[in-house]
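The instructor's notes for this session suggest beginning with a concrete chain rather than abstract definitions. Hand out the sequence below and ask the class to guess, before any prediction is shown, which regions might be ordered.
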Amino acid sequence: MRKGQNPAKAGNKAYKPKRLGIATLVYIPIQEGYFAQSLGIFKAHLTSVWKYTDEEFDYLVFDNGSCPEIKYELLTLQEKGLITTLISSINNLGKTGALNEILAAMQNEWICYADSDMLFRPGWLEACWKINSSFPDIGMIGAQ
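After discussion, reveal the predicted structure:
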């Protein structure tokens, strides 16, 4: 039995999510053939997210059953602060199953989902805010 007061309750506040949360899904089961360049493509995606998002954000990665080497690489990126939240599944839940997990996990006011091979461009977020201000009752904004 534990004795005393839990140290975590001694003034440590729970994390407050940023207004914007960005999420992606990673699935790299092997590093050859079709998937040979997938890690490099994901890293280009990740670089573009951080370079072209002009507001603080939380970045969530859902690993959908990648191989051990990729899981290790994702954990390393999280330790470097490039991934805020990393959810790792042993099984591939499919895209819809993974999206259900992602949306359930994100507590941000605004959620941006992007496939892990999509590159962000300068001004993407400002364009989204402009659309939202023009159509305040809109449910979803999509970009290409």
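Then share the key points. The helical segments are 38-52, 68-79, 94-105, 124-134. The chain has a mean pLDDT of 94.
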